[in-house]
Amino acid sequence: MFLKSFRLVFVLLLIGLLSVGFAWGEQKKAWKIGVAVSLTGVFGKDGSLVKDAYTLWQETVNSHGGVNGASVEIIFYDDKSDPATTAKLTEQLIVSDKVDLLLGGFGSSQLFAASPVAEKYQYPLISGGASSNKLFDRGFKYYFSTLGKATEEVRGCVDIFTAVNPKPKTAAIVGADILFTSLACEGYKKYCESNGIEVIHHELFPMALQDYNSLLMKVKNKNPDILLVGSHLLVAMKTIKAMKEIDFNPKAVAFSYGPTVPKFVEDLKGDANYVIAASEWTPNMPYSGKVFGKASEFNQLYLKRFSRSPDYVEAAAAGGAVAQQIVIEELGLKPPLNKENRIKIMEALHKDKFETFYGKIEFGADGANEAHPPVAVQIQSGKLENVFPLEFAEAKILYPFKPWKER
Amino acid sequence: MDTVFAQALINGLLLGGVYAAYSAGFSLIFGVMGVVNLAHGELIMLGAFTSYWLFDFFNLDPYLSAPFAMFFLFVFGYLVQKYIINQVIGQPHIMSYILTFGLHLMVANIAIKMWTQDFRSITTTYSGANAAIWGLNIPYARLVTFIVALFVTWALWFFLMRTETGRAIRATAQDKEVARLMGVDIRNIYAITFGLGAAITGLSGSVMSPFVIISPEMGLEYTIIAFCVVVLGGMGYMPGALVGGLVLGVAQSLAATYLNAGVSVAITFVILFIMLIIRPTGILGKGSVA
């Protein structure tokens, strides 16, 4: 008998506690933001950088009283680097979790799969980690990217060679055969042609390629002045390892993505020097705006929180979150959002111009950021130095590349 | 012979040595127990990480840390077989596939939790060092791995042919019931075999660590290649891993040199497909098909 009544009291107590919790939750409605991003799989590393960027944004905003008085809560789901899963999780965030807004994860293939879902449910989707041209060719209204298009992103990596002497005459282009990196290769080709550099080798290879030595040996035999690589972090690291092993010494080597991730320099050490990489942002850029202040202050916050400097993709991701926040604040919206609110946000994102720590953000009709100059960085004595465009350059480009055996 | 061809051949042989080094353990485990170990790549990953951490914390050269990797992987393999895989011995093969696949997911994901997604690389003073002989390039680290593959193949052969435990392992592989009647402790032999397979795989991960990129999820692609290598050389036939590795390495290198890199990956599976149809016992015809 005693046990029975004890159970009853316990159950009642539990119900009471839950309803108190529920009521409390009702009173303090937070912004629910959903992110489907790769935390495992080939893009697991890149995706977790994007997660860090959003986490820092969330913490910074919440420590300043939230957005329009409501705190920000982010739901992260791991898409395991599989685009079909990204689409499924995006739908789950909208339908089951009923999030107010979305933010984009990492990778063009992932965003290519997630954006039709966002478009269908009329959720604005801003990404800072995807830039394939195809993302912008579909007439979507709800997809935005703070990065420039992939083919434009690598422009700095080629244009910089107009500033060196003697100017390279020939180039070899190799890259992984996936959306972003193959477009980067197209961009290299386009800007090589406009700069009068002859492309003497152009080859795409599958991500599953284990041995880069044979491929690069073939390129080495053609003796190009410069090597341009359409890459992600893993491809970039494997390329450097193989180049050194086969003693391949072009006058310069450039990557579309990878060397700006701190691990590249940390683990490859001296072998990372002289490497050139495409970028869209570095902490020394003279930009500033709401939430994070100056570009350098964003860098300081990152150092404090994660003991490392942010990569440009992280800045681009946080920049997108800031742009969305500015629109919400201007419209004076509060959670929960309805469909009409989200349409208003989409329209404002297209119309407004944003000044942020990441630089100017102006979304064109196709959703691509049109206000951003392509930047090139070079690793010099283990440090990333901004070398292009010349007006923001921190250092002069080191050219030509010092042969492996003389280092 | 022109230098391009000679270079492609050298690259292929060295690559084949790498393949052979990490596939020998897969062949051993399959040959004795009939277990297709889908967590094979994780053993390579653990070997490579052992070297990485010893290098990172104590600045210990990867070649000096190889014995630690072998020891650690032996213990790991022994325990995994004794307490996990032995539970499904005697049941249909599909059970061991499911079990080792589960093991692959578990080990990889625990590694992600412990060491994050980072891609890592060991850069020593000699990493990337290479010889140029008659205009031909030979990277030292790959040459060492090639020699390790030869040594491992020989040592395994010696162990299986000339030692008491080796004889017990062979007896178990041939007919486990008769071996049991002769007083062989089958479960213990299985645990020793898996431990041994894991140890030589860990050794390969360790000697490869100076020239590969290390990450918790690197395993699966190695498992796939090891499977192809072992089918090529003959399932369960010990020197087969060496033959299969060299053939595959040379085929891939020639394809990458004269055709393109995409074909070099595709060719792996074309060869696997053809072999399974026309010659399932491997190039030398000494593998088992059961």
CATH architecture identity of the largest domain in chain A: 3-Layer(aba) Sandwich
For this structure, the CATH topology of chain B is ABC transporter involved in vitamin B12 uptake, BtuC
Number of helices of chain A: 13
- Mean of the pLDDT scores of chain B? 90
Contiguous low-pLDDT stretches of chain A (5 residues minimum) are 19-26
Order of helices and strands of chain B: HHHHEEHHHHHHH
- Summarize the biggest pleated sheet of chain A: 7 strands, mixed
Mean pLDDT of chain A: 90
- Cα distance spanning the termini of chain A: 84 Å
Main interface by residue count: A-B, 39 and 41 residues
Give the count of structural domains of chain B.
Answer: 1
Describe it:
The complex is a heterodimer of chains A (407) and B (290). By secondary structure, chain A is of the alpha/beta class. Chain A has two domains: 31-148 and 284-361, Rossmann fold, CATH 3.40.50.2300; 153-279 and 375-406, Response regulator (Rossmann fold). In chain A, 42% of the residues lie in helices and 18% in strands. Chain A has helices spanning 2-27, 44-63, 83-95, 108-120, 150-153, 155-159, 179-194, 213-221, 233-245, 262-268, 295-306, 312-331, 339-351; strands at 31-37, 72-78, 101-103, 125-127, 143-145, 170-176, 198-205, 226-230, 252-255, 276-279, 288-289, 293-294, 354-356, 359-361, 375-380, 383-388. In chain A, the strands form five sheets. Chain A has a seven-stranded mixed sheet with strand order 7-6-8-9-10-15-16. In chain A, strands 2-1-3 form a three-stranded parallel sheet, with helices on both faces. A two-stranded parallel ribbon of chain A has the order 4-5. Chain A is globular. Chain A starts with a helix and ends in a 19-residue tail after the last strand. Chain B is mainly alpha-helical and 290 residues long. Chain B has a single domain, classed as Orthogonal Bundle (ABC transporter involved in vitamin B12 uptake, BtuC). Helix content of chain B is 72%, strand content 3%. Chain B has helices at 3-33, 40-58, 62-83, 93-115, 140-162, 164-174, 176-181, 186-208, 219-233, 240-258, 261-278; strands spanning 130-133, 136-139. Chain B has a two-stranded antiparallel ribbon with strand order 1-2. In chain B, a hairpin with a 2-residue loop joins strand 1 and strand 2 (136-139). In chain B, helix 2 (40-58) crosses helix 3 (62-83), helix 5 (140-162) packs antiparallel against helix 8 (186-208) and helix 6 (164-174) crosses helix 8. The longest helix of chain B has 31 residues, at 3-33. The relative contact order of chain B is 0.21. The A-B interface holds A 39-42, 44-45, 47-48, 177, 203-206, 208-211, 213-215, 217-218, 221, 233-234, 237-238, 241, 244-247, 263, 267-271, 404 and B 4, 7-8, 11-12, 14-15, 109, 112, 116-123, 127-128, 130, 132, 137, 139, 141-142, 211-213, 215, 217, 221, 225, 252-253, 256-257, 260-262, 264-265.
